[in-house]
Design brief:
The structure is a homodimer of 416-residue chains. In chain A, the strands form four sheets. A six-stranded mixed sheet of chain A has the order 2-1-3-8-7-6, sandwiched between helices. In chain A, strands 14-13-15-16-17 form a five-stranded mixed sheet, with helices on both faces. The first copy, chain A, contains 14 helices and 17 strands. The first copy, chain A, is an alpha/beta fold and 416 residues long. Chain A has three domains: 174 residues, Molybdenum Cofactor Biosythetic Enzyme, Chain A (3-Layer(aba) Sandwich); 79 residues, Alpha-Beta Plaits (2-Layer Sandwich), CATH 3.30.70.2860; 154 residues, Maf protein (Alpha-Beta Complex). Chains A and B meet through helix 1, helix 2, strand 2, strand 9 and helix 7 of A and helix 1, helix 2, strand 2, helix 10 and strand 14 of B. Strand 14 of chain A pairs antiparallel with strand 14 of chain B, so a sheet runs across the interface.
């Protein structure tokens, strides 16, 4: 089934509120097989709400709204939708008693304003909202078109969605064959979007009717494959097959699926090899260690890190020879190798990871422009060092540097 | 002037991506006095993009789109909009040369796919995008209707908006009386939302007609004051006045306005006192150093950090006496004081900052539950240590710990 979402609230258009409901609705509805074909955000104005809801009903016959159900003057959704579906608003005594009881529990008199929250379009199904005063509403018109009205407060919206809306949608969908929308993501790093597309383009047709999206970020390019409106087991089988097909051309750049975190992948590989890790960072300033320690239980494998920001710390703590620094500079293969070795020695571990570079905006030279980063991963007595030149601003160069450092360790461990 | 926004991307509807562009566009456009009357999100399908853009142009004559400008097969915006506005796509040799040069700088051949990014609707104004390969486009049709096409990558969108789109809009708007929506944010930390509201409640009426919003996050509570549709100089004057009124009750918890970053505030204070900083972190795993080094030019003040994750590093690198660790544990006042002193000594600096705690999910005890964090800031020979017990999950406890560490140093420096 297809449906549209209308999000109501001037605050959302002004950008003072981030619309987290939208993403949550998207995930939850896709999971039960409902396809959102459009989402509109409109201000708290009756004519704007009216036209957006009317158009959505025209196109799909099913609209879900969030927001505009509160007790104040800018809460208009219920009135507008009732008019549109030609239903009168009637006072529901049950609802009114519930709202009065709620205020009694809080030890406050019920403001007259809240009485309007007990009015519902005639014939509507009331979706109880134990988390707030505004109930959700499920309104169906004579032509079978449905408008579901939910409050905009994320906690209340989420509760009503899970408790009331999704079960009803699933029942509706069980009549026909239940079709779902399912995605799988292959995560890659160290390869540009267009280079990845050149590798994958020739086989892109083979995964049809599944669709493929390239999602680039400073961490790499995610490949998201989506199965649309297929029966559940078929969707799973096709996604598995598509994943296998895409993994081959992605090659060594693929490091995991779905929510895989490269730091967790590296930590797991270190554990499997019974390695312990020490880190030496310069331009990334602690970001590599921060990513490793974000993972619960990292302390069994990660011993420590030095952020050797000043060169004096590279020589004092990491024992990078002063002669190396003077001859080759802080951003060089020789220095990064000595840093990895120094981390290994300082933390008395068998795996050392090091990164040094120029994150900018200052400090670049024609030979070593901003974005130049040297990385080294050392396991036992073998060191692998690589140079990368990253695009972007300081933050992006640092993020790319941290990700590339983790990726280098992943590759070295895979070959060991 | 009124305009509509069309956000393009199946990912956004599926809820895999949070639409941060939407909020950013809302704030920026409101600030120059443009009113967003609707925002629509549509999937990467030509007919969906076409109808949303056509309807928006019909209603307001001005549409701004984000997304769908990349080099791959799911990037359709330019083609669809060109058809809709009856413009052919033509290859721009200048753009092509720029894209080729970009790949050359990165030392990689340009994939053939990227060539399509140099095609533009005939007569369109090209908005240069130094942050990526897809330029923005400003396309005007024979009837004076305008479509502005921006890439969806937030960093690129933001740059094009500020450098190219807002100046053009401001020129268009200079005709009528210009009313603006302006906000100012006061940033606080170390005080709960409800405690702050108790302090501020009594004077909240004094800032009318400006409105006040409390925005809590793991970093603290931001106070956002907004002036709605006032003439520009009046908005500025009222915001300045409201800021002054609110700063008094916020007291020592206030650390800066608008985009102020606590790490930058601390770095500035260190510079003013000609201090140099060394850091010792345990549970935050590099996050404090990462935040300091995110600031360009930090290297003049920040020397280095040790992430002493294993206790053996606390004794070996930071010289925390084994007896202290054994008697009081790694998460204790005695240990955190010794860590701050150790950082001062190891990095040969006059300012040492240390944090040690239990980020969870494991490791808590009845006496030291998950969330217990000890912090110490040492300047010259004076150390101040505090204990906090933070709510939230591992990530939130770490973020709160890093913020509290920076805040402790800010307060110690303010008193020095």
């Amino acid at each position: 089934m297809k449906l549209e979402i209308v999000t109501i609230g001037t605050e959302l258009l002004l950008g003072h509120t981030l619309d987290t409901n939208a993403a949550e609705l998207g995930r939850a509805l896709a999971a039960v097989g409902a396809e959102i074909t459009r989402r509109a955000t409109v201000p708290d104005r009756p004519e704007a709400i009216r036209s957006a809801v009317a158009e959505a009903l025209e196109r799909t016959g099913f609209v879900l709204t969030t927001g505009g159900l509160g007790p104040t003057g800018d809460d208009l959704t219920k009135t507008v939708v009732a008019q549109l579906l030609e239903r009168r608003l009637v006072l529901d005594p049950h609802l009114l008693a519930g709202i009065e009881a709620r205020f009694q529990r809080l030890g406050r008199p019920m403001p007259e304003l809240n009485r309007s929250q007990a009015e519902v379009p005639e014939g509507a199904t009331i979706l109880p909202n134990p988390r707030g005063t505004a109930p959700g509403l499920w309104v169906e018109d004579a032509r079978g078109r449905v408008a579901v009205l939910l409050p905009g407060v994320p906690r209340e919206m989420r509760g009503l969605l899970a408790d009331e809306v999704l079960p009803r949608l699933e029942r509706r969908l069980q009549g026909g064959t239940r079709r779902v929308v399912r995605s799988r993501t292959l995560r890659t790093t160290g390869i540009a979007e267009s280079a990845l597309a050149e590798r994958i383009g020739p086989i892109e047709g083979e995964i049809a009717p599944l669709t493929l999206a390239y999602l680039p970020s400073p961490d790499g390019v995610d490949l998201r494959v989506t199965a649309w409106r297929l029966e559940e087991t078929e969707a799973a089988a096709r996604l598995a097959e598509a994943g296998d097909r895409l993994r081959a051309p992605a090659g060594e750049h693929w490091y995991g699926d779905d929510g895989a975190d490269l730091a967790a992948v590296v930590l797991d590989a270190l554990r499997r090899g019974r390695h312990r890790l020490g880190i030496a960072e310069s331009c990334t300033g602690g970001m590599v260690a921060e990513r490793i320690t974000a993972i619960p239980g990292a302390s069994d494998t990660f011993i420590g890190a030095v952020v050797a920001y000043a060169d004096v710390i590279k020589t004092a703590a990491l024992k990078v020879p002063l002669a190396v620094l003077e001859a080759h500079g802080a951003v060089s293969e020789e220095t990064v190798r000595a840093m990895a070795e120094g981390a290994q020695r300082l933390f008395a571990v068998d795996a050392g990871l090091a990164v040094t570079g120029i994150a900018g905006p200052g400090g670049g030279t024609p030979e070593k422009p901003v974005g130049t980063v040297w990385l080294a991963a050392r396991v036992h007595t073998t060191t692998r060092a690589v140079k990368r030149v990253f695009p972007g601003d300081r933050d992006e160069i640092r993020r790319r540097g941290a990700q590339a450092a983790l990726d280098l360790m992943r590759r070295v461990l895979a070959e060991a």
